[in-house]
Design a protein that fits this description.
Distance between the termini: 17 Å
Shape: elongated
Number of helices: 10
Number of strands: 8
Strand order of the largest sheet: 3-8-4-5-6-7
Amino acid sequence: MQKKSYLKEISISNTQKRFGTNVKKDVEKIQAWLTLYAMQNPNAGTATGIDGDFGPATEQAVINFQKAKGLPQNGVVDYYLFDALITPMKRAFENNSIGNNLRELVVNVAKNHAENNPYELVIRNQSNTGPWVRAYMDGNEGTSWYWCMGFAQTIIDQAASLQGKNFKNLMPLSYSCDTIGTTGLQKRILTRYQTARSNPSLIKPGDLFLLQKSTYDWYHTGIVIGVNGDVIETIEGNTNSDGSSNGNAVLNKIRNFKQSKIDFFSIEPLV
């Protein structure tokens, strides 16, 4: 893979504990993963502040996580326990998806990520933060860092790498929908919404959709995983149940491409 920032999110330098010789960034990772666990398990009691201070609240959150996992409850985060915390990201990035071709691989990689519940966090009053965002955005995070394209490119990168291909031969590494839309126009691999509406057979699983604000302005993207009648099924990041372009999760969505201005970027040159 070209995008390997996730590796920084699944490692700590040494054991972290209350009254220990701790590393602030490592403690912040631990607190973030404890809070992400709580988002999927709201009764676990593992949500805690993300400030890099391994105090009594963090220690209790660790104990509660250990209890939920049936592990010894000592409040200490060693490599073994941290590995349990970051299991969702390891499954998303390191489980080798299968597929008969690149399109199937893109779809299956996207589904695998969605199944592991990537969510952003709010840290120091900044949205678009946390381990998943940094993994998709090459270490960048913060309110201004919309991460839908970072997610989509990560999926294509991961799928392409399984075939020994480089996704940068298809598109530049970018977090901008405008950059990728313009690249699609230049390479003649962007299907405009008017054409897609009249000829839906041009839309294929594995392609990117790009929501159009105006002719040369796009504001949200994701992976097409299916086409059925007037609708596409997608997996997209930085969205929510309403289909926001600045939501907080990776979700499987349904969008009506005949009622929205949705262009499509084809991955066919890489297939």
